[in-house]
Amino acid sequence: MAHPPFQIEANFGYAAGFCEMLLQSHDGTIHLLPAFPEAWPNGKVTGLAARGNYEVDMEWKNGELTAATIRSRTGKKPKVRISGGAVIEDLSKESRIKLEN
C-alpha cells in the first residue's frame, strides 16, 4: 500500500520538536533555551506560545540568551528558567527579560 507524499502529522511534529528545543512550559515555568542546539549559536525567534497564555520572543548569541520579551495575556507574572539555571520568580532582577501585559 502506498503512502501519500505529505504526512501532516510528521510535519507538525517536526516543527513542534524545534519549538521544544527553544522553549518549554510544562511545569508552570517558562524554560528558555532548555535544549539549545549547538548548530544554532546565534538566532532569534518571535511569537512562541507558552502555557499559561504567554507569548515569547527571544534572541541569543554564542549560545547565551541576550534578550527575551514575554507577553502575558492574563496579566500574571510567570516563573522563568534560563538554559538550565535556577527559576527566576522576580523578573525585575533579570535585565535580559522584559515582561509586557
Which characteristics define this entry?
single chain, 101 residues, mainly beta, Immunoglobulin-like, four-stranded mixed beta sheet, 1 helix, 15% helix
Q: Domain count, please report it.
A: 1
Fold-level CATH name: Immunoglobulin-like
Number of contiguous helices:
1
What general form does the structure show? globular
**Spans with pLDDT under 50 lasting ≥5 residues?**
none
SSE succession: HEEEEEEEE
Please bin the fraction of helical residues. Answer: 10-25%
Report the end-to-end length measured between terminal Cα atoms: 52 Å
- The radius of gyration over CA amounts to 15 Å
CATH-derived architecture: Sandwich
> Widest sheet: strand order?
1-2-6-7
What's the arrangement of secondary structure elements?
Layout: H1 8-22, E1 23-24, E2 29-32, E3 43-50, E4 54-61, E5 64-72, E6 79-82, E7 87-88, E8 97-100
Parallel strand pairs: 2-6, 5-8
Antiparallel strand pairs: 1-2, 3-4, 4-5, 6-7
Summarize the structure.
The protein has 101 residues and is mainly beta. It has one helix at 8-22, and strands at residues 23-24, 29-32, 43-50, 54-61, 64-72, 79-82, 87-88, 97-100. 15% of the residues lie in helices and 41% in strands.
Would you mind describing this structure in some detail?
The chain starts with 7 loop residues before the first helix and ends with a strand. The longest helix has 15 residues. The strands form 2 sheets. It has a 4-stranded mixed sheet with strand order 1-2-6-7. The protein is mainly β and 101 residues long. It has a single domain, classed as Immunoglobulin-like.
